[in-house]
Amino acid sequence: MRHGKKINHLGRTASHRDAMLANMANSLIEHKRINTTVAKAKALKRYIEPLLTKSKNDTTSSRRTVFAYLQNKEVVSELFREVGPAIADRPGGYCRIIKTGFRKGDGADMAIIELVDFNTLYTLEKEQKKTRRSRRGGTKAAAATEQKVEKPQAQATSEEE
Q1: What is the pLDDT along the chain (161 residues), one digit of tens a residue?
Q2: What Å distances lie between residue 93 and 81, 115, 122, 125, CA to CA?
Q3: Is 54 helix (H, G, I), strand (E, B) or coil?
Q4: Are 89 and 108 in contact (CB under 8 A)?
């Protein structure tokens, strides 16, 4: 029975698992997206989300706490300099797991784990949709306001004559 056993051991010792998750977290912060198995992605998500929450406020205490997990000065500075301000207004859910199928060699279920605010594909689509909608609404609204504006001006000029 596995009652109360919430951690996935991933077939590794505790020290090996901690080192692997720290390395994967470093890669995720550095590259913003990595390809791995679904089990490792879920374990990484549970590992990194508290660290991303700590990166929202840039204090010495939070930097030391995050460094204790990641053990890489460059990654910690990038986390607090770039990632922290970008996710400051997000209340949680900083990572997205996208399943990509099965690995050819052993059939393992594969996934891409990425930082949500750093995916340019989704943000570009949203911006394009907004501009298209604003153009449609803008031309109708602009034409309607021009007609409204022109009529009072025409009346004002006829009254002045």
Answers
A1: 889 988 999 999 999 999 999 999 999 999 999 999 999 999 999 999 999 999 999 999 999 999 999 999 999 999 999 999 999 999 999 999 999 999 999 999 999 999 998 887 765 555 555 555 555 555 555 555 555 555 555 555 555 54
A2: 19, 9, 16, 21
A3: helix
A4: no
pTM of the model: 0.73
Q: Cβ atoms within 10 A of the Cβ of 109, count?
A: 13
Residues 79, 66 contacting (CB under 8 angstroms): yes
> Contact at 8 Å (CB) between 117 and 86?
yes
Q: How far, CA to CA in Å, does 109 sit from each of 23, 63, 121, 136? A: 20, 34, 24, 44
C-alpha–C-alpha distance, residues 80 and 59, integer Å: 9
CA distance 98 to 36: 10
The alpha carbon dihedral of 7, 11, 17, 23 has a sign of negative
